Amino acid sequence: MLHATALHTYYGASHVLHGIDFRVAKGETVALMGRNGMGKSTLLKSMLGIVAPRSGKVAILGRDVTGMETSAVIRQGIAYVPEGRGMFHNLTVREHLLMAARAGTDGRRDWTYERVLETFPRLAERLDNLGTHLSGGEQQMLSIGRALMTNPQLLILDEATEGLAPLIRRDIWHVIRAIKQTGIASIIVDKNVGVLLDLADRHVILVKGEVVYDGGPETLKSDSSILERHIGL
Amino acid sequence: MDVWFFLIQLLNGVQYGLLLFLVASGLTLIFGIMGIINLAHGAFYMLGAYLAWWLAGLTGSLVAAVVLSLPLAALVGYVIEALLVRTLYKRDHLDQVLLTYGLILIFNEAQRILWGNDVHGIAMPTAVNWSVRLTETLSYPVYRVILSGICAALAVVMYVVIAKTRFGMWVRAGASNRDMVAALGINVKLLFGVVFAVGAALAGLAGAISTPISSVAPGMGDTVLILCFVVVVIGGVGSVKGAFLGAMLIGLADTFGKVFVPDFASFTVYGVMAAVLLWKPRGLFA
Ligand SMILES: Nc1ncnc2c1ncn2[C@@H]1O[C@H](COP(=O)(O)OP(=O)(O)OP(=O)(O)O)[C@@H](O)[C@H]1O
Ligand SMILES: [Mg+2]
What we know:
heterodimer, A: Rossmann fold, six-stranded mixed β-sheet, four-stranded antiparallel β-sheet, 26% strand, B: 73% helix, 2% strand, binds adenosine-5'-triphosphate, binds magnesium ion, ABC_transporter-like_CS (chain A), ABC_transporter-like_ATP-bd (chain A)
């Protein structure tokens, strides 16, 4: 689905990603883990062309997208739910969803306006509210709903449950599981290691811009020292 | 001073305001959405007027001239955006002002080379060269009514496009968070190019349709540019609704100022601007 090789990214003089290899198979759920500031968000942005990597390659479904515009990379079948949720202060909930609507790269429209509202009934009650007038949890639902409206094959979630109340968090995880069941691949960045161990097919741990672990949940569960060392649990 | 005279000035003010709105709406969108201070926006107004005058001479028809000048102004706008303005999005306002000021000089020079520095005018087409009689002595030219009608209709179209269509949602979203728009797979470069071209076309149209009532002359874009910046500041940067109200205020202030306080006429629009900004420092709809 997505394959990044030897990515090096800099912010000015500071070298943030040190030659990262990262891939996601079709339908696979990958957890991207690491402490604060280790480069998780930067890796996502580098793959999407939001930040330009200095060297390395990114391919999506076998097609080289290195150096392409963000919008063109995204249209290869990716949906991105950024940190901070990316609400538009002057658009209503309804407009957030309608403006994003698009058939998938395979032409399918599995995710319609109606289906997104069924998935997030709370949004259906707030259709005429402005995006920024929603609670944090509702904004997150809207950001995910808006991403689904593009009928992606790969959903990227950066800190989707950060700062949310436990009940809302549970709702969001519930939806993420349901999305996984539909066969959409995903990359999930989250602080909640417990849920990720249970949910993801594969786990990648970053330390200072390098991959220190790439494997299934079994090793992480049986050898707790890995998580202790790299995540600090 | 009778009520009819007052009414005529009111109509003139509204008509001037509507015309200003056509120019200012593009300016505010380009400023609000793309973050570009486009000093060359008035040049599109001038371009529209000169194109209309030139094409009317070639075709013998004002309608044909206006209709033809519209896509030409849009094309010039699109090319300028794609070649020059696009390089400015990530730069600061000083660079933008320098480049777009340079564009004004180029436009003015091109105008001089192509069409000379004489003042031109278009004769009012006979079909619309009559007036609506109001009283024994006062009447109102029908062309101004038509002009106001065109501007008002376009304002309604613009409102519907921006408020109701997906294109309008993208434009508004772009004003709020353009990186997120790109992250949803929408081609922001193309979107901006189209908005810039439409802005240029509207300014050009305003210039073109005003040729029968005001002269086609060098520097005509500059006055309009300054007034439109006043309109944008009053309305709130990026707000089309604000631009509409601002344009009405300035159109009326300018018209009534010239009639009632001719000694202070050049001051009235700035007086209105100062008053609005004291009340709402970021403009009416910021
Ligand atoms: N725009 C930027 N300019 C300069 N440095 C940046 C920028 N964004 C991030 N950094 C730095 O790059 C490093 C990696 O940041 P990044 O946001 O990718 O980390 P992260 O793993 O997503 O962390 P978090 O869990 O806090 O979101 C950090 O040291 C951060 O300070
Ligand atoms: Mg991050």
